[in-house]
Known about the structure:
Order of helices and strands: EEHEHEHEEHHEHHEHEHEHEHHHHHHH
Radius of gyration: 21 Å
Structural class: alpha/beta
Shape: globular
Helix content: 40-55%
Number of strands: 11
Amino acid sequence: MVELTRRRLLQGAGASAVAGTGVAGCLGRGGGDSLDSLTVAYVPIYPNMQHYVMEQESYYDEIPADVTIERFSSGPSVVKAFASGDVDVALFGITPAMVLADKGTDAGVLAANSRNGFKILGTSDLVDRYEREGNAAFESFEQERGRKVRFGAPPDGSVPDIVLRYWIQEDLDLGEMDDVINKSKVPPAKAVQTIRSGDIDATIIQEPFATIIGREDGFDELAWSGDILENHPVTVLFANQRVIDDSDVSQALVEQHVAATEFTAGSPDAAAADAASVIGSGVSEDLAKAAMDSRASDFLSDPHAVTEQAATMGEFVADVGNIEEPVATDDLFAVDAYDAIQQ
Length: 343
Protein backbone atom coordinates (compact mmCIF):
# COMPACT_ATOMS: atom_id res chain seq x y z
CA MET A 1 0.00 0.00 0.00
CA VAL A 2 2.83 2.43 0.81
CA GLU A 3 4.26 3.88 -2.39
CA LEU A 4 7.05 6.03 -1.01
CA THR A 5 8.07 8.07 1.98
CA ARG A 6 9.75 11.46 1.73
CA ARG A 7 11.45 12.84 4.79
CA ARG A 8 11.40 16.61 5.00
CA LEU A 9 13.24 19.20 6.97
CA LEU A 10 10.84 21.36 8.91
CA GLN A 11 10.73 24.90 7.61
CA GLY A 12 11.20 28.07 9.67
CA ALA A 13 13.15 29.30 12.64
CA GLY A 14 14.04 26.72 15.22
CA ALA A 15 13.04 23.77 13.01
CA SER A 16 15.09 20.62 13.35
CA ALA A 17 15.56 17.61 11.13
CA VAL A 18 12.84 14.98 11.44
CA ALA A 19 13.99 11.48 12.23
CA GLY A 20 10.96 10.05 10.47
CA THR A 21 10.48 6.61 11.93
CA GLY A 22 6.89 7.00 13.16
CA VAL A 23 3.85 5.02 12.22
CA ALA A 24 2.26 6.10 8.93
CA GLY A 25 -0.51 8.57 9.61
CA CYS A 26 0.67 9.51 13.11
CA LEU A 27 0.50 13.28 13.51
CA GLY A 28 3.67 14.16 15.37
CA ARG A 29 3.59 17.39 17.42
CA GLY A 30 6.47 19.70 17.98
CA GLY A 31 6.84 23.40 18.68
CA GLY A 32 3.38 24.15 20.06
CA ASP A 33 0.55 23.00 17.83
CA SER A 34 2.54 22.61 14.62
CA LEU A 35 2.44 19.29 12.82
CA ASP A 36 5.71 17.44 12.38
CA SER A 37 4.36 14.89 9.90
CA LEU A 38 1.33 13.92 7.90
CA THR A 39 0.27 11.13 5.57
CA VAL A 40 -1.16 11.98 2.16
CA ALA A 41 -3.26 9.24 0.56
CA TYR A 42 -4.41 9.06 -3.04
CA VAL A 43 -6.42 6.82 -5.31
CA PRO A 44 -4.58 6.38 -8.64
CA ILE A 45 -7.18 7.86 -10.96
CA TYR A 46 -6.70 10.52 -13.60
CA PRO A 47 -8.94 13.15 -11.89
CA ASN A 48 -6.40 13.40 -9.04
CA MET A 49 -4.03 15.23 -11.41
CA GLN A 50 -2.75 17.69 -8.83
CA HIS A 51 -1.26 14.92 -6.72
CA TYR A 52 0.84 13.61 -9.59
CA VAL A 53 2.18 17.07 -10.33
CA MET A 54 2.84 17.76 -6.65
CA GLU A 55 4.73 14.50 -6.30
CA GLN A 56 6.71 14.51 -9.53
CA GLU A 57 7.47 18.24 -9.56
CA SER A 58 8.49 18.17 -5.85
CA TYR A 59 5.75 20.54 -4.70
CA TYR A 60 5.33 18.49 -1.54
CA ASP A 61 8.82 19.70 -0.57
CA GLU A 62 7.25 23.06 0.23
CA ILE A 63 4.96 21.64 2.93
CA PRO A 64 6.33 22.50 6.41
CA ALA A 65 5.96 18.93 7.64
CA ASP A 66 7.34 15.48 6.97
CA VAL A 67 5.13 14.02 4.20
CA THR A 68 4.45 10.32 3.70
CA ILE A 69 2.58 9.33 0.53
CA GLU A 70 0.37 6.24 0.42
CA ARG A 71 -1.44 4.70 -2.53
CA PHE A 72 -4.86 3.07 -2.12
CA SER A 73 -6.85 1.06 -4.62
CA SER A 74 -10.25 2.63 -3.96
CA GLY A 75 -12.17 5.32 -2.15
CA PRO A 76 -13.66 2.93 0.43
CA SER A 77 -10.19 1.72 1.40
CA VAL A 78 -9.11 5.32 2.05
CA VAL A 79 -12.29 5.95 4.06
CA LYS A 80 -11.37 3.08 6.36
CA ALA A 81 -7.80 4.30 6.80
CA PHE A 82 -8.91 7.90 7.30
CA ALA A 83 -11.53 6.95 9.87
CA SER A 84 -8.94 4.95 11.83
CA GLY A 85 -6.51 7.88 11.89
CA ASP A 86 -3.94 6.32 9.57
CA VAL A 87 -4.45 9.01 6.92
CA ASP A 88 -4.40 12.78 7.42
CA VAL A 89 -4.95 14.07 3.88
CA ALA A 90 -6.60 12.32 0.94
CA LEU A 91 -7.17 12.99 -2.73
CA PHE A 92 -10.27 11.02 -3.65
CA GLY A 93 -13.90 11.34 -4.68
CA ILE A 94 -16.33 13.81 -3.15
CA THR A 95 -18.63 10.97 -2.08
CA PRO A 96 -16.07 9.25 0.20
CA ALA A 97 -15.56 12.68 1.77
CA MET A 98 -19.30 12.84 2.39
CA VAL A 99 -19.24 9.40 4.00
CA LEU A 100 -16.51 10.48 6.43
CA ALA A 101 -18.30 13.72 7.26
CA ASP A 102 -21.54 11.79 7.82
CA LYS A 103 -19.70 9.51 10.27
CA GLY A 104 -18.72 12.56 12.30
CA THR A 105 -15.07 12.63 11.25
CA ASP A 106 -13.49 16.00 12.05
CA ALA A 107 -12.28 16.84 8.57
CA GLY A 108 -13.11 18.95 5.53
CA VAL A 109 -12.49 19.66 1.86
CA LEU A 110 -9.58 22.08 1.48
CA ALA A 111 -9.74 22.29 -2.31
CA ALA A 112 -11.45 20.83 -5.34
CA ASN A 113 -9.38 18.69 -7.72
CA SER A 114 -11.65 18.11 -10.70
CA ARG A 115 -15.18 18.60 -11.97
CA ASN A 116 -17.40 17.61 -14.90
CA GLY A 117 -15.25 14.53 -15.24
CA PHE A 118 -17.37 11.82 -16.90
CA LYS A 119 -18.64 10.83 -20.29
CA ILE A 120 -21.57 8.51 -20.85
CA LEU A 121 -20.56 6.30 -23.77
CA GLY A 122 -22.56 3.63 -25.53
CA THR A 123 -22.71 1.44 -28.58
CA SER A 124 -23.31 3.34 -31.81
CA ASP A 125 -26.68 1.60 -32.11
CA LEU A 126 -27.79 2.92 -28.72
CA VAL A 127 -26.44 6.42 -29.40
CA ASP A 128 -28.18 6.57 -32.79
CA ARG A 129 -31.43 5.46 -31.16
CA TYR A 130 -31.06 8.11 -28.45
CA GLU A 131 -30.37 10.83 -31.02
CA ARG A 132 -33.50 9.83 -32.95
CA GLU A 133 -35.88 9.20 -30.07
CA GLY A 134 -34.52 11.11 -27.10
CA ASN A 135 -35.84 9.89 -23.74
CA ALA A 136 -38.05 7.31 -25.45
CA ALA A 137 -34.93 5.42 -26.58
CA PHE A 138 -34.72 3.47 -23.33
CA GLU A 139 -38.27 2.18 -23.56
CA SER A 140 -38.05 1.34 -27.26
CA PHE A 141 -34.74 -0.47 -26.68
CA GLU A 142 -36.38 -2.62 -24.00
CA GLN A 143 -39.41 -3.36 -26.18
CA GLU A 144 -37.25 -4.38 -29.14
CA ARG A 145 -34.55 -6.31 -27.25
CA GLY A 146 -36.65 -7.75 -24.47
CA ARG A 147 -34.33 -6.31 -21.84
CA LYS A 148 -33.27 -2.98 -20.39
CA VAL A 149 -30.16 -1.11 -21.51
CA ARG A 150 -27.20 -2.62 -19.65
CA PHE A 151 -25.01 0.03 -17.97
CA GLY A 152 -21.63 -0.61 -16.40
CA ALA A 153 -20.73 1.76 -13.56
CA PRO A 154 -18.90 1.83 -10.23
CA PRO A 155 -20.79 0.95 -7.01
CA ASP A 156 -23.92 2.68 -5.71
CA GLY A 157 -23.09 6.00 -4.12
CA SER A 158 -19.84 6.53 -6.04
CA VAL A 159 -19.43 9.82 -7.89
CA PRO A 160 -20.18 8.37 -11.35
CA ASP A 161 -23.15 6.41 -9.97
CA ILE A 162 -24.60 9.60 -8.49
CA VAL A 163 -24.18 11.50 -11.77
CA LEU A 164 -25.78 8.61 -13.68
CA ARG A 165 -28.74 8.59 -11.28
CA TYR A 166 -29.15 12.33 -11.66
CA TRP A 167 -29.12 11.99 -15.46
CA ILE A 168 -31.79 9.27 -15.52
CA GLN A 169 -34.01 10.58 -12.75
CA GLU A 170 -33.69 14.36 -12.91
CA ASP A 171 -32.26 15.39 -16.27
CA LEU A 172 -34.20 12.86 -18.39
CA ASP A 173 -37.06 12.56 -15.87
CA LEU A 174 -37.50 8.84 -16.53
CA GLY A 175 -38.19 7.70 -13.00
CA GLU A 176 -36.10 5.56 -10.67
CA MET A 177 -32.87 4.46 -12.30
CA ASP A 178 -33.34 0.78 -11.51
CA ASP A 179 -36.66 0.82 -13.38
CA VAL A 180 -35.05 2.28 -16.50
CA ILE A 181 -31.68 0.54 -16.90
CA ASN A 182 -29.95 -2.61 -15.74
CA LYS A 183 -26.84 -1.43 -13.93
CA SER A 184 -23.94 -3.75 -13.15
CA LYS A 185 -20.87 -2.93 -11.07
CA VAL A 186 -17.92 -2.37 -13.40
CA PRO A 187 -14.73 -0.66 -12.16
CA PRO A 188 -13.44 2.10 -14.49
CA ALA A 189 -10.33 0.17 -15.46
CA LYS A 190 -12.48 -2.77 -16.65
CA ALA A 191 -15.11 -0.73 -18.48
CA VAL A 192 -13.18 -0.75 -21.75
CA GLN A 193 -12.89 -4.54 -21.83
CA THR A 194 -16.49 -5.00 -20.67
CA ILE A 195 -18.06 -2.78 -23.33
CA ARG A 196 -15.81 -4.26 -26.03
CA SER A 197 -17.00 -7.76 -25.11
CA GLY A 198 -20.64 -6.76 -25.50
CA ASP A 199 -21.49 -7.44 -21.86
CA ILE A 200 -22.79 -3.87 -21.45
CA ASP A 201 -24.40 -1.40 -23.82
CA ALA A 202 -23.16 1.77 -22.13
CA THR A 203 -20.98 3.09 -19.33
CA ILE A 204 -20.28 6.28 -17.42
CA ILE A 205 -16.54 6.64 -17.39
CA GLN A 206 -13.75 9.05 -16.48
CA GLU A 207 -10.60 9.84 -18.37
CA PRO A 208 -8.40 8.44 -19.74
CA PHE A 209 -10.71 5.45 -20.29
CA ALA A 210 -13.29 7.64 -22.05
CA THR A 211 -10.64 8.53 -24.61
CA ILE A 212 -9.87 4.85 -25.23
CA ILE A 213 -13.52 3.95 -25.84
CA GLY A 214 -14.18 7.09 -27.86
CA ARG A 215 -11.40 6.22 -30.30
CA GLU A 216 -12.93 2.88 -31.25
CA ASP A 217 -15.42 2.15 -33.98
CA GLY A 218 -18.83 1.08 -32.76
CA PHE A 219 -19.01 3.43 -29.76
CA ASP A 220 -20.10 7.04 -29.37
CA GLU A 221 -20.94 9.61 -26.70
CA LEU A 222 -24.41 9.76 -25.19
CA ALA A 223 -23.79 12.65 -22.79
CA TRP A 224 -21.16 14.59 -20.87
CA SER A 225 -21.56 15.04 -17.14
CA GLY A 226 -20.79 18.75 -17.40
CA ASP A 227 -24.05 19.15 -19.32
CA ILE A 228 -25.97 16.93 -16.90
CA LEU A 229 -24.96 18.54 -13.58
CA GLU A 230 -22.87 21.56 -14.49
CA ASN A 231 -19.73 22.05 -12.37
CA HIS A 232 -20.28 18.95 -10.25
CA PRO A 233 -17.23 17.91 -8.21
CA VAL A 234 -15.41 14.67 -8.91
CA THR A 235 -12.36 14.50 -6.63
CA VAL A 236 -11.22 16.74 -3.78
CA LEU A 237 -8.35 17.44 -1.38
CA PHE A 238 -9.64 16.32 2.02
CA ALA A 239 -7.87 16.85 5.36
CA ASN A 240 -8.47 16.02 9.00
CA GLN A 241 -9.07 18.72 11.60
CA ARG A 242 -5.53 18.73 12.94
CA VAL A 243 -4.24 19.61 9.49
CA ILE A 244 -6.96 22.22 9.03
CA ASP A 245 -6.13 23.78 12.39
CA ASP A 246 -2.44 24.13 11.52
CA SER A 247 -2.72 27.15 9.24
CA ASP A 248 0.89 26.90 8.05
CA VAL A 249 0.41 23.32 6.86
CA SER A 250 -3.10 23.68 5.48
CA GLN A 251 -2.30 26.87 3.61
CA ALA A 252 0.90 25.37 2.22
CA LEU A 253 -1.02 22.33 1.01
CA VAL A 254 -3.60 24.48 -0.73
CA GLU A 255 -0.97 26.85 -2.13
CA GLN A 256 0.92 23.94 -3.70
CA HIS A 257 -2.35 22.46 -4.93
CA VAL A 258 -3.16 25.74 -6.69
CA ALA A 259 0.35 25.76 -8.16
CA ALA A 260 -0.23 22.23 -9.46
CA THR A 261 -3.52 23.28 -11.05
CA GLU A 262 -1.77 26.19 -12.74
CA PHE A 263 1.06 23.89 -13.88
CA THR A 264 -1.51 21.52 -15.40
CA ALA A 265 -3.19 24.35 -17.29
CA GLY A 266 0.08 25.82 -18.53
CA SER A 267 1.97 22.59 -19.25
CA PRO A 268 -0.66 19.92 -19.91
CA ASP A 269 1.74 17.49 -21.61
CA ALA A 270 4.16 17.64 -18.69
CA ALA A 271 1.31 17.15 -16.20
CA ALA A 272 0.02 14.19 -18.22
CA ALA A 273 3.49 12.65 -18.19
CA ASP A 274 3.59 13.08 -14.40
CA ALA A 275 0.22 11.34 -14.13
CA ALA A 276 1.22 8.43 -16.36
CA SER A 277 4.45 7.86 -14.43
CA VAL A 278 2.56 7.50 -11.14
CA ILE A 279 -0.71 5.82 -12.20
CA GLY A 280 0.81 3.09 -14.37
CA SER A 281 -1.74 0.30 -14.92
CA GLY A 282 -1.84 0.74 -18.69
CA VAL A 283 -2.09 4.53 -18.62
CA SER A 284 0.65 5.41 -21.09
CA GLU A 285 2.11 8.88 -21.47
CA ASP A 286 0.57 9.20 -24.95
CA LEU A 287 -2.86 8.24 -23.62
CA ALA A 288 -2.58 10.60 -20.66
CA LYS A 289 -1.65 13.45 -23.00
CA ALA A 290 -4.52 12.69 -25.37
CA ALA A 291 -6.98 12.67 -22.47
CA MET A 292 -5.96 16.23 -21.60
CA ASP A 293 -7.90 17.39 -24.67
CA SER A 294 -11.15 15.92 -23.32
CA ARG A 295 -13.82 18.18 -21.87
CA ALA A 296 -14.00 15.62 -19.07
CA SER A 297 -10.50 16.76 -18.00
CA ASP A 298 -11.45 19.81 -15.96
CA PHE A 299 -9.02 20.58 -13.13
CA LEU A 300 -9.39 23.33 -10.55
CA SER A 301 -8.62 24.22 -6.94
CA ASP A 302 -11.36 26.65 -5.89
CA PRO A 303 -13.65 24.77 -3.45
CA HIS A 304 -16.34 27.45 -3.75
CA ALA A 305 -16.85 26.48 -7.40
CA VAL A 306 -18.31 23.06 -6.49
CA THR A 307 -20.17 23.56 -3.21
CA GLU A 308 -23.62 24.04 -4.73
CA GLN A 309 -23.50 20.89 -6.81
CA ALA A 310 -21.93 18.95 -3.94
CA ALA A 311 -25.10 19.68 -1.97
CA THR A 312 -27.25 18.36 -4.82
CA MET A 313 -25.14 15.22 -5.09
CA GLY A 314 -25.37 14.69 -1.35
CA GLU A 315 -29.12 14.21 -1.61
CA PHE A 316 -28.59 11.28 -3.98
CA VAL A 317 -25.81 9.79 -1.85
CA ALA A 318 -28.29 9.79 1.04
CA ASP A 319 -30.98 8.25 -1.17
CA VAL A 320 -28.83 5.19 -1.91
CA GLY A 321 -28.04 4.79 1.79
CA ASN A 322 -24.32 5.61 1.85
CA ILE A 323 -24.97 8.47 4.27
CA GLU A 324 -27.86 9.00 6.68
CA GLU A 325 -28.71 12.47 5.41
CA PRO A 326 -27.15 15.07 3.11
CA VAL A 327 -24.09 16.71 4.66
CA ALA A 328 -24.31 20.50 4.99
CA THR A 329 -21.70 22.19 2.84
CA ASP A 330 -20.47 24.16 5.87
CA ASP A 331 -19.68 20.82 7.52
CA LEU A 332 -18.12 19.32 4.39
CA PHE A 333 -15.93 22.18 3.17
CA ALA A 334 -13.08 23.91 5.02
CA VAL A 335 -12.41 26.91 2.78
CA ASP A 336 -10.42 29.13 5.15
CA ALA A 337 -7.03 28.00 3.86
CA TYR A 338 -8.02 28.62 0.25
CA ASP A 339 -9.49 32.00 1.10
CA ALA A 340 -6.38 32.99 3.07
CA ILE A 341 -4.01 32.46 0.15
CA GLN A 342 -6.26 34.47 -2.16
CA GLN A 343 -5.78 37.61 -0.08
